[in-house]
Amino acid sequence: MAEAHQAVAFQFTITPEGIDLQLSYQALNQIYLSGVRSWKKRVSRMRNRVIKGVFPASPSSWLFVAIGILATMYMQSDPSMGLIAKIQQHLPLSLHVSLSAQGQTMVSALVFSTLLWLSLILALRFCLKLLLSYHQWMFEQHGRISNTTKVWVTLVRLFSSRKPLLYSYQTSLPHLPVPTIKDTLSRYLESVRPLLTDPEFERMTRLANQFESNLGNRLQRYLKLKALWATNYVSDWWEEYIYLRSRSPIMVNSNYYGMDFLYVTPTPVQAARAGNTITALLLYRRKVNREELKPSRVPGTVIPLCAAQCERMFNTTRTPGTETDVLQHWQDSEFVAVYHKGRFFRLWVYRAGRLLSPREIEYQIQKILDDPSPPLPGEEKLGALTAGDRIPWAQTRKQYFSSGVNKRSLDAIERAAFFITLDDEEQGMKGDDPAGNLDRYAKSLLHGKCYDSQLYTLATDAFQLGYTEDGHCKGEVERSLPHPQRLVWDIPSEVQTQALSSLAVAQALADDVDCHVFPFREFGKGRIKKCRISPDAFIQISLQLAYYRDRCGFCLTYEASMTRLFREGRTETVRSCSNESSAFIKALEAGEGEEKCRRLFRLASEKHQNLYRMAMTGAGIDRHLFCLYVVSKYLGVDSPFLKEVLSEPWRLSTSQTPVQQMELFDLKNHPDYISLGGGFGPVADDGYGVSYIIVGEDMINFHVSSKHSFSETDSHRFGAQISKALQDIMTLLSADTKTPSKGAAQSQSKKLL
Length: 753
What we know:
By secondary structure, this protein is an alpha+beta fold. Among the domains are: 2-54; 256-289 and 330-511, Choline/Carnitine o-acyltransferase, domain 2 (Chloramphenicol Acetyltransferase), CATH 3.30.559. Helix content is 48%, strand content 12%. Keywords: Acyltransferase, Fatty acid metabolism, Lipid metabolism, Membrane, Transferase, Transmembrane, Transmembrane helix.
């Protein structure tokens, strides 16, 4: 085994003549090379810390400051206004003894230069934070960019002229601001107005006013205190209470999935696809660790986004607990965990400090595929423990996986760079029923068999790494590679019983999910933009129309937006169902005049864009109310208003999947290399989950989910309603494509940026 081979560097026996020492030079060589690789990583991390620590300046700028100070002093001038002389007076006595007066002056000048340099860095960083705190550019109207914004654009470009590392901007990003109670409550009441009758709205207004005048201000003071102390007043509580403290299954309720290429299979050889995919992920991990990735930015601009979540993309596991789970992250891992036909393996992807070639990883994967050994008793469905409720898994883990062979095998899985499943069933569009196959593919990715895991691939495997003509990975193979290590378990009957119990819980949840995936090809963002409408606003209003037709009413709608303009920012909610969108839909369904409907649609579109911008710039509703609720629980006080707000169901949960890393794709020359994006399960038992991705100029892919157990929802029916709503609104707007829009907001701003 690989770890045994590296751990035993020498052997010895005791003989009558003394100790017979037998050195294993191959093992020692591997240990030496692994040590070299480890030290290289340490040096690289240290170097990156220095570069990040002085950003937006550079380490070499110290030399310019020092030379400038020394040159000025050489010209009989004192740029420090006496500070260098004071520093010289306070030098250690040893330096006074060992150095001449001129040497002491030079040392003092260098100390002053360093202090001045650090002060300039802090000043530059403060200026950059001020610049990144300016968000008015997002709200400026098309063709009416203010002089302030133009100057701001120039300054941001100036500060972005250096090539930053992945995390260079982190300390310069502003903190998420805490909105005022009055503004949040006002926006909340506006958001629920189209959902409530007049008496219901009056009652909710009274509750909000009582909250503002009594408990609200008290809770707000505690929240502001946290905002002064914490890097982000939302993120840690959101992660803990929304994710880690949930005791229900993670599968379906929390996870999401991503799909592979829609029309193309880069290779029919499963081991080869796995080889390139694993390599692609490891190369990406290397870039993350070395911070070689470019910082994410607002599309079309130079505005940086928070990259904090990149830190835990790999080598991270969620350890179960009875009250809350814990995220554990390891600095590095030289192996991946593999599951195939009920067996778990550890696959070493480095040898003597070298990343295995894609062909070598394919060779190792093929060994796993060819391994005829059956699963150990209870091993095949062992993964179901993680798919059921969290408390039984936490109790079972503590009792049966805290020592011995089970702990060693579980550690191998949890400490792996990532986990990959080798399916024994083909998924995708192929076959006589491509539409049905897509739906089954989505379910397979969302929950699998409830005891395995899924991994989707990147474009890197097809466009950068590539395959040979016969479908294999490129590169050479070192035939002496140690075999993948089969993990060993000792699974007592109690654990097997609990695994089957957890599997039953997970299977019931999985069977209840109704998934429907479909590509919409009638038009895409190209035609929508010709109507001078934001594609996202167009789709969101179409979803509102589809829901109104499907359920004969409006509902609280969740659209995920990001707050990564701020440090450690995550997400915020855009409440897409607005008074303006409701007015448009009612007018359209009542058959009112086209001109009036178009006017109402443009008002709804502009309103949605404004809501999205406010959410992005820290003026959202739901994260603020959530944190106020957490504070109330810590203080042990109840708020009828907050309790009701936090219990409102999101019957329509939506999210746009961003199209990232487009430099890896060449859709012009390879138009078939299109991904359908990904999706997630419904948030409410009686609602829909809708994910969409805008691909190219002429395609929008949708993922719709609901639950079979609620008789009034149907994912296929809702998918048909979405298609019809998109086409109906386009027909309405196409008759008036020459009408200018007041708010294609951001388009001009993006051109400037």
